Amino acid sequence: MLASNLTSIAKQSLPIAARLGLISFINSLPVVWPIENKLVNLPQATSLHLANPNELNQNFEKGLLDIGAMSAFYYLQSNDLTLLPNISISSLGPVGSVLLFSKLELNQLASKNISVTTASATSVNLLKILFLEEYGFVPNIISEKDPDINKENISAVLLIGDAALAKDAELSKYVRIDLSSWWVNKFNLPIVFGVWAAKNKFAQNNQSLVNEIAANLMEAKTLGLGKYFEDMIAYAQKTSNFSKERLKNYYCEELNFELTDKHMQALNLYGQLAHKHNLI
User: Fold this and answer.
1) Block means of pLDDT (10 residues each) for the chain, length 280 residues?
2) Rounded distance, CA 276 to CA 279, Å?
3) 3.40.190.10, 3.50.50.60, 3.30.450.20, 3.30.300.30: which CATH number matches 98-187?
4) Where do runs of H (alpha helix) occur along the chain?
């Protein structure tokens, strides 16, 4: 009986392991870089898992993650997630990394093929929403790992994240549409691409741990955009080959990491339109 009690006490004293998902694109570096460099003291036994947004979505769906970043679209279509406050990946205007390049004007793309990345759920469905709201149709959507506008049967491509930033200048001869600008101009609201959330059961059973990780994320964001901004930029420049000026503009002018009432209005509107068009 004594051995059994000791085992029970030992189990209770072990730290709860939290599997934290983080986005591997450079758009998340202001949050991810301070965490990876241990400038933020995450709870003991927290494990980090970096992947693109769609891979993170799938890992949450499979029960492989407890808390972390995900596509806004995935959060909206799930009934098993608790949103973390005050942090998102959003934009208040042009974002520079969610770009549609087209050989034709947009109103000419009915029945044409658009190649879209498999790495994102929010941006692909944003594309569908905007076409349906603006033109009443959706072009033929072809999902590919590496969309290529040079293919004969492809009339347009949707690029996101690092790929969009890298190919922006190269594809300048095509019609270029920043989907964030399109949304913001049409609805006068921010566009929310990604959020942080926890699985409901994990949040219910470990509320103090979830609160601590949420505070860690806010601390990381503050450090990444503040005290360690130049160090974070230097790392981004080294790993991406983008200029310092381009990266500073990206983080300071194009991306937005808040989650205000306006952001929640935008997130809710996105969800309503996704339901309206049977995307959710």
Assistant:
1) 44 74 95 97 94 94 97 95 97 96 97 91 96 97 92 95 91 96 98 97 96 98 98 94 94 97 98 96
2) 8
3) 3.40.190.10
4) 2-13, 29-36, 53-61, 72-77, 122-135, 161-167, 179-187, 200-205, 207-225, 229-240, 244-249, 261-276
Q: Please enumerate in sequence order all residues whose Cβ is within 8 A of that of 180, keeping only pairs 6 or more positions apart, or say none.
A: 91, 93, 94, 95, 98, 191, 254
Residue 81, CA distances (Å) to 68, 70, 76, 212, 223 in order: 10, 11, 9, 17, 27
The model carries a pTM of 0.91
Pair type for strands 19-23 and 67-71: parallel
pLDDT at 14: 61
Which residues make Cβ contacts (< 8 Å) with residue 4, sequence separation at least 6?
A: none
The CATH topology of domain 2-90+191-276 is D-Maltodextrin-Binding Protein; domain 2 (3.40.190)
Whether the domain at 2-90+191-276 and the domain at 98-187 fall into the same CATH topology = yes
Predicted confidence at residue 13, as pLDDT, reads 53
Q: Closest by alpha carbon to 97, among 120, 69, 68?
A: 120
Tell me, what's the pLDDT at 86?
A: 97
The predicted pLDDT at position 120 comes to 82
SS3 of residue 51 by DSSP: strand
Report pLDDT for 4: 46
Reference 160, options 189, 108, 122; nearest CA is 122
**Mapping DSSP to helix (H, G, I), strand (E, B) and coil, where does residue 180 land?**
helix
